[in-house]
Design brief:
Length: 310
C-alpha cells in the first residue's frame, strides 16, 4: 500500500528539529569552558547575566528576520514565555549556587536529572504519559550520565546544601523546557520566544548579580580582554546559538525527548574539556557517552503509521 503523502514532511521536519537539538547541545556544552575563563574576573552570577544580556542584540536581529514581511501582530511576553524566562533564571541561579557549594562533578550530576523531572511534570501536571521507548531511552541516558560524571561524584554531608541546589537546577531546567514547549505550541516563533524569555532572564540575573557582587565586593563589569571575549562567545554561541536552536527543536519535538539534550550537553562538555583544557577522558566515561547516544537514539520520536489507502 502507498503511504500517506503527509508522512514524509513530518519525518523531515523532525529530522531537522533533531539536527537543531544536537547542534544546540554542542553550543551549550562549551559554556563551562567560557565560564572558566570569565568567572575569575566578574564572578559566577555576573557571568550568567552577561551570558544572556549580550545575546539580546543577536536574538532581536534574528526575531526581526524571522518575522519579516506581513503577518499578524505578535505578543512578546506571553505567559508561557514569561514562565520560561523565570525558570531559566532559576536554573542559572541555582546552577551557580550549586557550583559554589559542592563539587563541579556533583553539581553536573544532579543537573543531568532534569529529564526525569520533565517526565514527572508532564505526567502529573499535563497528564501526558511518556512512551516506553522514551522511558527506556531515559534510563540508558541516566546510566550513561552516571558513567560519564558519577566516578567523580563525592558523598559529603558538608556539601548536602550544594547538592540540593543541583537538584533545584534540574527542576528549573525541566520547567524551562515545558515553558518553551508551551510557548512554541501557542504559535510563538523560535526567535521571538527565545528573545522574550532571555529579556526576562537578564532582568532577574542583573538584580542577582548586583546584590551578589556588591556583597562580595566585586564589580559586575569585566575588565580583562580574556573575560570579555569569553562572555561574548558564551552569549553568542552558548545562549543565542544553543538556546535558540533548542527553541527551534521544541517547535516540533516533545519536551520529554528534547530534555535529553542535557546528556548531549554533558558529552559535549567532556569533549571540549578534553580538547581545550586537556582534561583526560577515561574508558568508563567513553562508555557512558556511548550509552547516552544509544539512549537518545532509542527514545527518538517515531512517526505515527500512516493509514492505509484503499
Amino acid at each position: 500500500m502507498a503511504s500517506s503523502p503527509t508522512t514524509a514532511p513530518i519525518e523531515s521536519g523532525q529530522a531537522a528539529a533533531f539536527a537543531a537539538l544536537c547542534a544546540g547541545a554542542v553550543a551549550m556544552g562549551i559554556s563551562p569552558v567560557f565560564v572558566r575563563f570569565a568567572a575569575a574576573d566578574v564572578g559566577p552570577f555576573a557571568s550568567a547575566f552577561w551570558r544572556v544580556a549580550l545575546a539580546l542584540p543577536v536574538l532581536y536581529a534574528w526575531m526581526r528576520i524571522e518575522e519579516a514581511g506581513p503577518g499578524p501582530a505578535r505578543r512578546s511576553f506571553t505567559p508561557a514565555a514569561l514562565f520560561a524566562g523565570l525558570a531559566f533564571a532559576g536554573d542559572l541561579f541555582f546552577w551557580h549556587l550549586s557550583i559554589l557549594n559542592t563539587t563541579v562533578a556533583n553539581a553536573t550530576f544532579f543537573a543531568t536529572t532534569a529529564p526525569i523531572f520533565v517526565v514527572l511534570a508532564s505526567w502529573l501536571v499535563l497528564k501526558r504519559r511518556a512512551s516506553r521507548e522514551t522511558l527506556a531511552g531515559l534510563s540508558l541516558c541516566v546510566a550513561g550520565g552516571v558513567a560519564l560524571i558519577g566516578q567523580s561524584f563525592q558523598v559529603d554531608p558538608d556539601r548536602v546544601v550544594g547538592d540540593l541546589y543541583g537538584v533545584a537546577t534540574a527542576v528549573f531546567f525541566a520547567l524551562y523546557f515545558l515553558g518553551v514547549e508551551r510557548a512554541r505550541g501557542e504559535g510563538g516563533g523560535a526567535a521571538r520566544v527565545t528573545f522574550a524569555l532571555t529579556l526576562v532572564t537578564a532582568a532577574v540575573l542583573l538584580a542577582v548579580a548586583l546584590v551578589a557582587n556588591v556583597t562580595a565586593g566585586h564589580g559586575v563589569i569585566p575588565h580583562t580582554p580574556k573575560a570579555i571575549a569569553a562572555l561574548v562567545a558564551m552569549a553568542f554561541i552558548s545562549h543565542a546559538g544553543g538556546q535558540g536552536l533548542l527553541a527551534v527543536a521544541l517547535g516540533r519535538l516533545p519536551a520529554t525527548f528534547s530534555s535529553l539534550v542535557i546528556f548531549l550537553e554533558a558529552i559535549a562538555g567532556a569533549a571540549f574539556g578534553w580538547i581545550i583544557l586537556g582534561e583526560a577522558l577515561t574508558p568508563v566515561q567513553m562508555l557512558g557517552g556511548a550509552l547516552i547516544l544509544f539512549g537518545i537514539w532509542w527514545a527518538r520520536p517515531r512517526p505515527k503509521p500512516a493509514p492505509a489507502l484503499p
